[in-house]
Amino acid sequence: MRIAEIKNHLSKFRIGIAGAGGLGSNCAVALARSGVGTLVIADFDMVEEINLNRQYYFSDQVGMMKTDAIKYNIKHVNPGILVITHQIKLDRINLSEVFSGCNIIIEAFDNAAMKEMLIETVQTNMPGIPLIVGSGMAGWGKTNELKCRKIDETLYVCGDESSEVSDNLPPLAPRVGIVANMEANVAIEILMNISD
Amino acid sequence: MIVDTLMKIILNNREEEIGKESITVNEMLILKKFSYKMRIIKINGVLISKENYDSTIIHDGDEVQMLYLMSGG
Q1: The whole model's pTM is what?
Q2: Tens-of-pLDDT digits for all 196 residues of chain A?
Q3: CB distance from A116 to chain B under 8 Å?
Q4: Cα(B16)–Cα(B21) distance, rounded to whole angstroms?
Q5: Which chain A residue has the Cα nearest residue B50?
Q6: Chain B contacts of A116, Cβ < 8 Å?
Q7: In sequence order, which ranges of chain B are alpha helices (DSSP H)?
Q8: Phi first, then psi: what are they for B57, rounded to 5°?
Q9: Residue A123, min C-alpha distance to chain B (Å)
Q10: Hey, are the CB atoms on B47 and A111 less than 8 Å from each other?
């Protein structure tokens, strides 16, 4: 299939991204470049200096809300897509409203308890919507341990499922970026299998 | 002691033999020494919430999926 046909197909869909940190910002940009029509991005944080080691922001954006900064960056990458942002901390109550109408939801939090909350909420309150999760991407190297696992039709996990961040095993751009792009890649695979 | 295999389950796509007729989710976690707390468990595609780990029984032939959630992103 040619790139124009791929972009035309992907333009019909809406993807929700929960978090705009290392996973969310990089995943969103990959999806925007691919031409996914609408991105719904939720985050409550501000861009900080330490985020620049892996997140899709620039040094002059430190202090901006991540939702504003990612919207600006995506518009410069692909002005043709719609970006809807929610400056909000997602919880069990607001999640299904924020992501209503999304064809796919991408988990892009950093905190394990938040990942767990999101999976439980989406799988319970939004049955049938595919959810793509990132788990295990701290540190460096071990490239071949990063993988995607389909648990069932509605749940996919990307990462090594074992490397947890700590002071001595921080998240770095390459492994976080690989997993963010794996999540985007799974999303595109799902959407390309949906016929018009 | 010889323990006959009484049931087989599929755990993360691999067949596992359990020497009992049935087992609760919590009993499976202890038996398999799965101690890490941040996790999602699905049985035959149905998500099992933490408060039901003691009351949910895994039967012969069930497909169990467990996903560990690591901080980082």
Answers
A1: 0.95
A2: 999 999 999 999 999 999 999 999 999 999 999 999 999 999 999 999 999 999 999 999 999 999 999 999 999 999 999 999 999 999 999 999 999 999 999 999 999 999 999 999 999 999 999 999 999 999 999 999 999 999 999 999 999 999 999 999 999 999 999 999 999 999 999 999 999 7
A3: yes
A4: 13
A5: A120
A6: 38-40, 69
A7: 25-31
A8: -105, 135
A9: 7
A10: no
